[in-house]
Design brief:
The protein has 14 helices and 8 strands. A hairpin with a 2-residue loop joins β4 and β5. Among the domains are: 57 residues; 102 residues, 2-Layer Sandwich (Ribosomal Protein S8, Chain: A, domain 1); 107 residues, Orthogonal Bundle (Hypothetical protein af1432), CATH 1.10.3210.10; 73 residues, 2-Layer Sandwich (Alpha-Beta Plaits). By secondary structure, it is mainly alpha-helical.
Length: 512
Amino acid sequence: MILYYILAAVAGAVLALAIYIAISRASARGRASAIIEKAELEAENIKQQKILQAKEKFLQLKSEHDQKVSQRNNELRDRENNIKNREMQLKEQASELGKRQHDLDSQKGQVNAQRVALEAKIEEYDQLRAQANRQLETIAGMSAQDAKNMLVENMKAEARTEAQAYINDTMDEARLNAAKEAKRIVINTIQRTATETAIENAVTTFPIDNDEVKGRIIGREGRNIRALEAATGVEIVVDDTPDAILISAFDPVRREVARLSLHQLVIDGRIHPARIEEVVAKVSKQLEEEILETGKRTCIDLGIHGLNLELVRMIGRMKYRSSYGQNLLQHSREVANICAIMASELGLNPKIAKRAGLLHDIGKVSEEEPELPHALLGAKIAEQYKERPEICNCIGAHHEEMEMNTIYAPLVLVGDAISGARPGARREVIESYIKRLKGMEDLAASYPGVTKSYAIQAGRELRVIVGADEVTDDQAARLSTDIAQRIQDEMTYPGQVKITVIRETRSVAIAK
């Protein structure tokens, strides 16, 4: 019985579920139909809207196209009208050109007739001129060509004489004015750069307080003084001179290093070989910095810029160098100012002249010492550090050991001579100087055919004048070589000596 109830309940539940499903499907179909109908209606509305938009777009494009076509047609009509107007103008121009051609043809006929008449007149004139020339030749007894040649020769001779006289007058006037102008420029330059002269010695005196300090400097068995001389490269003279020690060396830089080192050692009180080496190394480094600073300050004072740092250092080293007792830095600054003033007077660039004047003796402070004169060595150094060619030429030619190929080279030569020729600027034993120059002149005068000999340029050049009737050109060339070889073998001289043999021929005529 219970099983029967259970089956009845299950059957009822299944029946209820089937009825619910059937009802749900009927409701879903109704909703789906409604949704489909709504979608179809919306689709139809959208379709109608798109059709209307398409029609409107088509009408708009058609209207724009019609406007463009109408505008193009108007442009074509305008062009056609322009072409027609142009054709009418061309027809009118063609008609006018035809008329002008007709007029030109008629004028051409007239010109031809005039030309024929003119040619006839020219022919008649030539015949008359030839007849007149024949009559003149008969009267003068000379052909027309001969008369023409004679007249031309006379005019040439007269013009040559007048031109030569004009050239001579002009050259004389130019020499006179040039000499006056050169003297004025040199005198003004010397007056404007009248600086002090400075004589450098080869010995420095180091003052001390008492003789006890001398003993400490000498050290046990002289070890301190030997260490100091070895470290600095100078000679230290300790003698009976009271309260002083002499430092002797031809290199002013070494003397200055030794002086400063002694000063620090005496103040410090610790004087022994190890301390000496330490102090000398420290002082050398400080002096190198001071040398560089001196070079920079010199360039700033003179307004010279763009120099290589090594050249600036070499300029600073000039402060501790001397030339015939004259301080090299002061001499170079003076030459720079002299060259700048003369360049300004002559209308040249004073900056180039000042730069060349400052660097002209740069070869004297080179740490290398090859077998080259200082002028040629300086030119080589300047070229190495990218100085301009005219600057290098000025440096190399300031003792005429190189050919001058720039206008600034003579300025540097003259500036160097002016600075060195000041009274008291340089020191040289006058007896040995005169003896050396006299020896050079006597040596040259000992050769046959030599009439006169002069030592010039402070003994750097020897001028030898020979007789033209006794010495030929080939002999003159050999004579200069022989004299140079004898001077090189027999004499002692600084730098180079240039031997110039002059053979002069003179033609003399007297007008009475």
